[in-house]
Batch of 3 targets.
Target 1
Amino acid sequence: MSATIGIIDTGRSGNTFSIKRSISLAGGKWVEVKDVQALERVDKIILPGVGAFKDAMHELTAHGLVGPLQEHMNRKPTLGICLGMQIMARIGFEHGKSEGLNIFDAEVQPLRCEGKVPHMGFNKINIVKENKILKGVENEPFYFMHSYELVNYTDIASLTSYKSHQFVSAIAKGDIFGVQFHPEKSRDAGVQIFKNFIDY
Amino acid sequence: MTLRIIAKLDVKPPFVVKPVHFEGLRKVGEPAELAYKYYQQGADEIIYIDIVSSLYQRKLLTPYIEETAEKVLVPLGVGGGVRSLDDFSNLFHSGADKVLVNTEVVQNSPDLINQAAKTFGAQSVVLNIEAKRLPTGTWECYTDCGRIRTSKDVLEWVQEAAQRGAGEIVLQSVDRDGRRLGFDLELIQKVVSLVDIPVVAASGAGSLDDILAVARIANLGGIAIASLLHYDEVTIHDIREFLRNRGVEV
């Protein structure tokens, strides 16, 4: 029996449409997770990412999911996407300071560079530390749409350059993975990432 | 980072129509079918605008949006008659990644931009501009697909909206839309240099050379194309190749 991926879907903004479709295309099985009971039943976790840091944390708190997520992420492979990666950090500064899930030690700061912000569009990733999630997508472009970046020094899996500014575009720490880009919006290369996560 | 080539679908449910100068309409196909076709051609993004919902004060018809979202694995921007945070939320749940606003924020509630940016993040709040060039050499904001004028100055409004938290601007021109006479380069250049957020140029592509001319504007975020694609004269693949051969990174 194949593993079931739980997609955390509590927010008003959660566009999980393409994530579901990508998992299905990659041959995986998913369920929506809105509460602790549903969380208990899944084998892997995807934390999707549309919205703002503070609002997303409010939603998770309101659904009683902060503590349980921290506990389950300890033992279940997890993929955070965009904001989903960001809120796994210790602290965020979008619309005021707020605490994240503190899965890894990082801060989420405004993207400061010469280019237009949000950083929006397809861009390449430069893998600095190989991992199973980024396998087979080395030279592929991925879709980014973000105004904030993760400031982390220890668990970097890939970096991306935007107007001569380098930022963290993927992290990996044990069974925890995060990508700043949207694999579900990045054509076949994105589907490959979901496939890698299913096979993990 | 590359310049985005975006396919724009002007939808009068259940069909994509080709507005000529924002008025006469010609059916060109169904949104899901055309979105898929342009996705296959290599579109970096799809913009879906319901061109009647704002005018008729009608809710956006989400089944067509869902059907469209199901066909593509690139971002989908949706607009037309968006009036509240609930509208934003409904569209995200129907598969939209970005939501375009115009009429409501220009006419009634500019604060909706602030609220939406705070709730959903700036990256998913797109200001849709319908600019009309005035004899005075300035541009006026129009709404409801170029039917209704406001007294807002485009260059002032884009700065205000960016300040309020909009994450992107789709810049359409009432004078140029569907006419295939080339983009309003002066307007696009001005807006790109005035705001720090990405700007997508729309309205006016009549040839590959028109597209090259706008692609040469420094720091432009993307180019949205409608009619030219609907005529089946060029594909997105052709556009990309043409631009690449001339040194534009797309």
Target 2
Amino acid sequence: MKHASLSKYLALSVVAATTAFATTGIAKAEAPSWCGPKKATLGLLDGYGGNSWRQVTTASGKQTVDLCPSITKYEYADGQGDTLKSISDIKSMAAKGLDALVVFGDAGPAVLPAITSVFKSGKVVVPYRVAVGGKDGQNYSKFVGASFENDGESWGNWIKSVLPKGGNLLFLSGPAGNSQGLDELKGLKKVLGPEYVFVNQEPFAVTNWDPALTQKVLTAEIAKNQKIDVIISDFGPSLVGALPLFAKQGKSIPALATSDGNSLGCFWQDNKDSNPDFKLFTVATGNDNVRLAVQWAVALATGGTPPSEQVFKAPAFEDSVSGKPSAVQCRKDLPGAIYLSSELSAEDQAKAVGK
Amino acid sequence: MPIPLARSFVTVVFSTLVLLLVCAVFAPSSLSWGALSGSLPFAAIIAIVGLGQLLVVQQGGFDLSLPGAVSLAVVIATHFPQQNDALLHQAVLLSIGISLVAGSLNGLLVSIFRVNAIITTIGTNALLYAVVFAVSGGVPSITTNLLAEIAGGESLGLPNSVIFALAGMALVSFALKKTVAGRRFEAIGANPLAARAAGLNVRIHQMMAYVYAQLLYCMAGTLIAGITREPTAFQGDSLLLPSVAVVVLGGTSLLGGRGYPVSTVIAAFFLNQLSQFALTVGVPFSAQTIIQALALGFGIGVYSIRWTVNRKTTTGTRKVEDKT
């Protein structure tokens, strides 16, 4: 009886998964092989959940969990940018008896001791995206990182295609010394030769991913540099407020290699005609990193087959020059703060970020 | 008595002129009109929150609820209308209403119930952030076009935000220096005991300082919402330190008393131009922070050295102040 209902659930989940994948346009015909038969509970822990990117990510994680009926309980905690709260969230989730934890370790190595102690007590722990230090199998079950170097290479290749003879580049990233920015620069430098000059300070212009600071930094850079050929930024939407500064200083918005966002796509469509140099290339902003991490955690906790990928590689998304893999997208009817590159449907994202 | 006014004003104007000279030599592009029109709105924001902080500092207080207040004005101005221009004025009225409530709360606790200003305003800040989360869920939203035009546009060749800041300065200066209430306000800040003995209503004036401050934060937050197209829900966080810094650089004593609105506004320009200078020179981020810290240390040092001399000559007054 129990077995029968279980197989029924499994069959249902196969159907659900297939339809879900089919509707989101992903050619994954097989059932989630990562979902094993063993019952388990799972918690998703965010170090800082207070922006739309995180809300879309959380909704994506939840959607992935829903594909696996073996997960009987799902919980979410937001560390609210407070390292101590993040640590106590990890510990209390484990104390509550959850079997698997997927952790966005914003605080980096600071959360490693908590993760390690939970892992040592026999839980499945999968930190993702932000490196927390430590090793697979010793401090946690599996770290599912993102390849920011890959993003850098994608941008670099595109820059080469639109600017073959070299030129002036301006690279903006988040807080000083953040590893994402450094990895992206590594990828950029791998592809681009010395004829491409970075006009920003080494290694990148610091913006803290704050739109106000981005605006100030860009003001100074535009005034200082007669010619900027390409702006590279790892958070495209934070540039939307700053780009009109070019018009104020009587220049065209230059080419832009960045990550996607609905507000950015719409901004490009509104401004491309008045700014002849404004070409746009985006990589997916990486909300789907959480899916891979959840799949790993579920596979390990339920006895399923772990996914073959170990690292999330953000695919290229929009290219205003070639139109491949997709032309620049804009959904004016939906909030600006959603990411059309995400597997989560635009409407579901709007729900996730909306009030 | 006009000597101290002249000193603070002269110091801050002199420092600003030196900075402009240094900019002209080492980073001339930071003085180009394009660069200035991009950075002046942020100077205006610092000036406006600085004026708010000034009024509280004049009463010997300290307002740490600034980040919450500014962030709340930002999210109300963006989330409430949801890009619908017709709802903007309602959003602004709502912001003003909340500012009055938050300011009265701060003021009542500090002046009537005698709770320490720092503790009170930290608490209010947490409350305001709770509302920020309730309104926005921590998510940025896009500004309405109307607000972007009002706050981000230019008239008479000046960014509108600068006009708002100058109007704020004129209003605060006039009220402080030329009205009876303003003169009482300053007298109470200088010495509440003496003011009470003279029959002034100390508590009301102390309370109102927090209310005026909140109104100015509200103005700053609404302007930020217009200047940055997609402001975060935490835009006020980076303004707390500059707000205190410009008050101190403007020559107002943290112990309260006479306030210098014009100097405060000039100090805001100075501080903003300094960070723009550091950005333009292209020094590493660590050095940028150090340059700003040194400038602040220098600014504060200028006043504290004179201040020590004052203390020696007027020991009697100091003792009375210490007891308050």
Target 3
Amino acid sequence: MAVISEPAAAGRRSPFDWLQTILPKLVLAPSFAVTIICVYGFILFTLYLSMTNSTMMPRLDSWAGLVQYEKLWADPKWTISLVNLAIYGVLYIGISTAIGLLLAILLDQRIRIEGALRTIYLYPMAISFIVTGTAWKWILNPGLGLDKLMHDLGWTSFTFDWLINGDMAIYTIVIAGVWQSSGFVMAMFLAGLRGVDSDILKAAAIDGATLPQTYRRIIIPLMRPVFLSAFVVSAHLAIKSFDLVMALTAGGPGTSTWMPALYMYSLTFTRNQMGLGAASAVIMLATISAIIVPYLYSELRGGRRD
Amino acid sequence: MVPGPRSGLSVALRWLLFAILGLFALVYLFPLFVMIVTSLKTLDEVRAGNLLSLPPNPTLEPWISAWSTTCVGLTCEGLKGYFLNSILMTVPAVAISAVLGALNGYVLTKWRFKGDGIVFALILFGCFIPFQIVLLPMARTLGLLGLASSTPGLIFVHVVYGLCFTTLFFRNYYAAFPNDLVKSAMIDGAGFFRIFWRILLPNSIPIIVVTVIWQFTNIWNDFLFGVSFAGGGSAMPVTVALNNIVNSSTGVKEYNVHMAAAIIAALPTLVVYVLAGRYFVRGLMAGAVKG
């Protein structure tokens, strides 16, 4: 091995040197190729499908231009899906962020059992959305769930029928979604709080700032990057929401809890409207990209500057 | 970090603090408690009691039913086969994607080449696409490869779409690893794999744990790929089987069995979380906030 000790010396390149220079790229190549094909190639394929009249099977020769997109925006089920996504997204992101920030601030007050509490707040993140949906479907069961519990506790006029009430069912998904991921938002804020320079806080204390003032004026403004990250991650999860809806309401009652991911799945796999399904997937990708690309760009650039 | 009890918070406020934190803890634990007590009751006891009432005569019948006799579609053999499917799918998928991610991260940080930044950015973006955009072509591809509705097919899918995360984790970890060590090993004539094996890998235990836990949790909990590429088939993972049990429209709703089945499906990731929660959190953070 020591014989070939200067691979950098140009001019006398042995096969070993050549192998050493090509090897790293060779190792990376399969992953890169698979990414190019299965991410970018497939995106293009879906984009193309969305411009054909494919129904049950892909029909690549049936060019349709933007017809599927026109149909999509004219489809009431798609409108319902978008409205639901807006309701779910706003409430899910807003409530998760509020609870996450509150819990993180409270936990940051030198709580002795912090570790145990953190574990409890965060465990839902480790389980599948299908399990979460199954559990909440039972808890919110009209008649046997919360209803019965409240009646047994003496509140006999209590009724909770959101799961079978088309106007309210979307909020059951918010409840389960917030339960599942607010602990994660808490963990993000807690990490942010732990990173605050203690000198700033000492200076604030010397200036006579009270604790609430310190949080409102100094610490929370310092959390701006965490707010951004939490927003990006939750928005991303919200747009992709599929499992939870399937397990909790399966889109029902009727189509009242449809969301874009469920729309795509239903149209493509159960209603044989492949072109329309592909068009909805393209809109989902475009929406997520609009949020993720600027975020990734700034994160990667930020990383380089450090 | 923030002024402690002596410098501000009165005793009363401190009690309020504990009360709020405790209340939230109860809310988070409530569904788990409900699942456990419901799974230990007979169906009559479920109907007679309420969510919080303890089982008068705890029984394991629902668990046995969920594991080996309840119906998933038309097959009434419980969850056990699908649980095994999930293991057979998850273990190889985690191993393969972690190894590839480690090698990719190594190349992208220690054997840099022109354009490596773009290669990384292209791979990274794959983490964030909504998978709906690849479902149709992937279904066709699996069909062409003869892997439709099969465990190897699902392994392939999970490796492909897990690569970006594993690459990201290892790249960020190795970026902080001193280049000098690698350089001096090169001068000593150590080759590509020897440097990786002898120098980087022994120092990679923490990131390996983070990656394995992250991948294990994501792949075990996956539903979309499972239902799209193996829904209804014999290779169905446990999440899809659970959903079929709970949302089947025929027969009596056996809530106790549903809860037992849900706990069974959640158990592996819950155990991992309890045993290695610290690493789980680190993985979440690494997936959310990039360096």
